[in-house]
Amino acid sequence: QVQLVESGGGLVQPGGSLRLSCVASGFTFENYWMRWYRQVPGKEREMVAGISRTSRSTPYLADVKGRFTISRDNANSTLFLQMNSLKPEDTAVYYCARVEPDSGRVDYWGQGIQVTVSS
Q: For the residues 36-53, what does the mean pLDDT come to?
């Protein structure tokens, strides 16, 4: 079965960095676009970044462009999100997601991991 398992979250001070990882299993990772989303209580889940199958295309949410970098290692079925210059407003639960090729919609989600930016 499809599994997406995130790691690397935690507490960091403003201006700090974190690197999230998402290990995928149960499907051929290199055949799918992948995305990172985030959600805070009371708000809708929002897309932070996406990455095409070959990493050629990497769209970002405007608020994180220049600070976050999405990448992937197809050989090891792993998705990454490098987050630099973190701000308190980046505090959220971050989710790894697989994109269904025909619809462009997310068909599988990871369990989510907490990122807290606070002094």
A: 97
Query: How does pLDDT run across 82-92, given as a tens digit for each residue?
Result: 999 999 999 99
What tokens does 38 get? 């985030």
State the Cα–Cα distance between residues 86 and 84, nearest whole angstrom: 5
How far is residue 112's CA from residue 15's CA, in Å, rounded to a whole number? 22
DSSP labels for 93-105? Answer: EEEEEEEPTTT-S
Q: What values do phi and psi take at 58, rounded to 5? A: -140, 80
Closest CA to 17 of 110, 85, 98, 68: 85
What average pLDDT does this structure show over 108-117?
98
